[in-house]
Design goal:
four-stranded antiparallel sheet; single chain; about 120 residues
């Protein structure tokens, strides 16, 4: 059973920085992608950034130039460096990974870590 464990959330002032980390354990199933999602109160969960096994990464427009995703999908570790944080970045951030079980794909989620940006 795959387990994703996040760390690094917290409370920071506008303009501050935080670094989120995610590590997977529990299974040798390969991942096709890892990523970070977030969900703010009253809003749908949205993807923030993702990274492929080849190292190709992407981030959504609202965080470009501020957030950087890095990691090694084959080793099942991933970080999200968040700089220039804004109040609208406040949300619960979730680590995500898609496991390749040969005939099917399974989405795995971490427990979530709270990021709060005060104005």
């Amino acid at each position: 059973q795959v387990q994703l464990v996040e760390s690094g959330g917290g409370l920071v002032q506008t303009g501050g920085s935080l670094r989120l980390s995610c590590a997977a354990s529990g299974s040798s199933v390969p991942f096709t992608v890892m990523g970070w999602y977030r969900q703010a109160p009253g809003k749908q969960r949205e993807v923030v950034a993702s990274i492929s096994p080849s190292g190709r990464s992407s981030v959504i427009d609202s965080v470009k130039g501020r957030f950087t995703i890095a990691g090694n999908v084959r080793q099942k570790t991933m970080d999200l460096q968040m700089n220039g944080l804004k109040p609208e970045d406040t949300a619960v951030y979730y680590c995500h990974a898609r496991g390749d079980h040969d005939v099917t794909f399974v989405d795995y989620w971490g427990q979530g870590t709270q990021v709060t940006v005060s104005s």
